[in-house]
Fold this sequence. Notes:
Elements: H1 3-30, H2 36-41, H3 45-54, H4 60-69, H5 88-103, H6 109-118, H7 127-136, H8 141-147
Helix pairs in contact: 3-4
Amino acid sequence: MPASRKHRQALSAWLEASQQLDEQQQARLKSNAPSARQKRGYVEFAQVVKIRKALRKGSRERLMLAFYSMIPPLRWLFATKDGEPYTAKNFSRWCCDTLRKLFGRPLTLTLLRHSYLNSMDWNRLTISDQEELAAAMCHSTEMQHTYRWMKRKRPVGL
């Protein structure tokens, strides 16, 4: 079998597997259900606010929580000991380590976003409010809905 045919077959198999994985991921997101790991790490937004308020004013930990629970998103707010901005990976690692120390569980920045959006009363938000909130969080309203976890209640008769 010519090499180009083998490559086409391998590429076709890879594309099919990739599409299946993407469909599974999209189905999980559309279910608005947290994964087992997310369930272990999730905290209610009210607890985030309570912990933030209990921290020493001016502390980096309080500032980090404020960054995700009070103020609009900015480019970067934290710097390394050398005064340089964190790389995305190092900042995320520092935040996750800090959140683990503060809450005693594997809380992540993404879970803070889930917590924040789940604290909203979506029955009181207009479509414009939802669009503004999504823009402030740098994602679409569609992505916003994937951050919201729904408590399933079966309609009567189903």
